[in-house]
Structure formats: structure tokens, C-alpha cells
Amino acid sequence: MKKLGYGSIFLLILAVIAIGVLSSELSAEKSKTAEIQPDETETVQTGQATAGVSHNPPSLDDVPDGPEGEAVKRGYELVNNTSEVLRADAASVEDG
Predict the structure, then answer these.
(1) Taking the model in full, what pTM does it have?
(2) Model pLDDT for residues 24-68, shown as the tens digit of each residue
(3) Which residues contact 86 (CB under 8 A, 6 or more apart)?
(4) How far apart are CA 63 and CA 76, in angstroms?
């Protein structure tokens, strides 16, 4: 019984040491990230300046014919009407 007690205490001490080492590594990593952070802030501010630009995709009238055009139209329908398209493609009780 005493061997089990000493073994448990040893594992507990080992776990505490491991947690201490990992926390010090984590704090060191956070401090390195904090030093890099000002550069990322400048990038975010630049991104905010261009946030007013809107995406203007081509019209569906410009989609080519053939399998590529069908794929583009299918993708458009999947993005804009996901539940309706998937519901239409799904098997129903009547299908068996």
C-alpha cells in the first residue's frame, strides 16, 4: 500500500512540474506573439481602408454552355438555394 502511495505522490509531483514547464513555454510564446502583434494591427487597418470595395461577380448570362457552364450554374444554385437543391436531390419515402 505504501508503494502505491509513494508512486502516486511521485506522479503528482511529476505532473505539477510538467504543468509548470508547459505554462512557462506558453507564456514565452504569448510574449513573442505580442511583439509581432503591432505589425498585424497595421495590416488590419489597411484591410479596413479597402473594406468598402464590393465584390462584383460576372453575370450568369456570361456563363459558357456545356458541362463547365452546368457546373457553374449548379454551384450557384447550391450556394444560394442549398436546402431546396439538396431537398430535391434527396431520396424520399416514395423512392424506397
Answers:
(1) 0.38
(2) 888 888 887 777 655 444 444 454 556 677 878 788 888 889 999
(3) 78
(4) 11
CA 19 to chain centre: 28
> Letter for the amino acid at 57?
P
In Å, how far are 27, 49, 57, 58, 67 from 61, measured between CA atoms?
56, 32, 11, 8, 15
What 3-state DSSP class applies to 61? helix
Check: CB of residue 72 under 8 Å from CB of residue 63: yes
The pLDDT score that the predictor gives to residue 43 is 47
User: For residues 77 and 85, is the Cβ–Cβ distance under 8 A?
Assistant: yes
